[in-house]
Amino acid sequence: MTQDLDNRRPLKVRDAALARRMARRLAEAKVDPDVVSAGGVAFAVLGGALIMAAGALDGWLLRAALFGLAAACIQARLLCNLLDGLVAVEHGRGGPAGPIWNELPDRVADVLLLAGAGYGAQSAGIYGGAAVGWIAAVLAVLTAYVRELGRGLGQPADFSGPMAKQHRMAALTVICLVSMFEPLWRGHGQVLLGGLVVIAAGGLVTVVRRTGNLARALRG
Question: In whole angstroms, what is the distance from residue 19 CA to residue 63 CA?
Answer without folding.
Answer: 31
